[in-house]
Amino acid sequence: MLLRHHARCLTGIITAGILTVTATSATSSGFVVAAETATSSPAAGHRSLFNGTDLQGWRGMGTENPYKLAAKTAEERAAFFAKNQPGIEEHWKVVDGVLVNDGQGPYLTTIDDFGDIELWVDYKTVPKADSGIYLRATPQVQIWDSTETAKFKIGADKGSGGLWNNSPNTPGKDPLVLADKPFGEWNRFRIMQVGARTTVWLNDKLVVDNAIMENYWDRKKPLLRRGPVQLQTHGGEISWKDINVREIAADEANAWLRDHANDGFEPIFNGSDLTGWSGAVENYEVVDGAIRCKPGKGGTLHTEKEYGDFVARLEFRLPPGGNNGLAIRYPGTGDTAYVGMCELQVLDSEHPKYAKLDARQYHGSVYGMAAAERGYLRSTGEWNFQEVTVRGSTIRVELNGSVILDTDVATVKDFMGGKPHPGMNRTHGFFGFAGHGDPVEFRNVSLKRLD
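Structure (tokenized):
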């Protein structure tokens, strides 16, 4: 839903060291195995990030805030990287096809930026060394000495592979098992990252299972959409080899997200017809396994069953300028944005015609009440994966693996246009789609009751 009450809100994306405001697309590749399964070596489709001879494709960068780096001019960034180059040459060497760092100097950083990836890295270190792998310029998949008793109080005894810079007691901060090999032996990481959802195997053992990697630089925002891979130096010699990456395409990423933590979800759309749905049925059609709003039509198509607290999962595809919404606890009649608990926007946010909307009108926002983070939609015409959790008065929206909204509507005091939402305190109702005349599509729609 859209109204003529405008104010612009932009979310940055780091690409090639530059902060931009346009969504980026994933690249193509094949499908992957489930999170609980490990394989011992990269499959086809990977490319090597280290050629075994020199540091082509890499440059130096320390613990640099990527937002601040992006704010520099092109000349300032060039000077920044040039200043780091002597440290790279002094502390990083290639010896017999192995990349060796003496424990000092800038972090070795890819020139290329990456989004959703599968990354393989082999490393070997020494006692008391402390290192890690930064993803999207963000710390970090931890590497350290699991026998160093002085660091047991901060988790060293649990081993390597955890997302150490996550907040205390959050999933992924500590590894699930101790998987480090003895000193002198090579260790192997396999890392899958889709959005902020991060899965890590160390030596074929699952140590992080589909956990959200926090944005260390601004914990109120999702992890950056894209950024470089960095090899951290931190006081002890460490060697690296067989560094390979594969970028993950949208369909594979959606399948990965859909197939994880899916216990208790039940399909509410059969992929063939609108059995089980009510409301504006005549304004929707089923095409190639997806519910599609008919062009020029609209209204709310909703489930025949009512729900209280729930988690909904679905894929959606937007045409250029497409506009629709998710009806949350809809009573069955009226405008769901006001008489239901809310309407969650489904919108091609970056289309030029929407350049001057109120921040609470962009994709993922609780319409007119709470603004979602922007910049995490896939390119127009690609399928997106979204998970919506409704619990009491709280709503959480995860788009393509990144949490773009986590809000409590009971705390909202300022409404767009000063228009109140009388249904915002509803505790149950129907789930559905609020069409606005555009052929927006939905598929693989499932729901899990929480009450």
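Helices lie at 66-71, 74-91, 250-258, 336-339. The longest strand covers residues 238-247.
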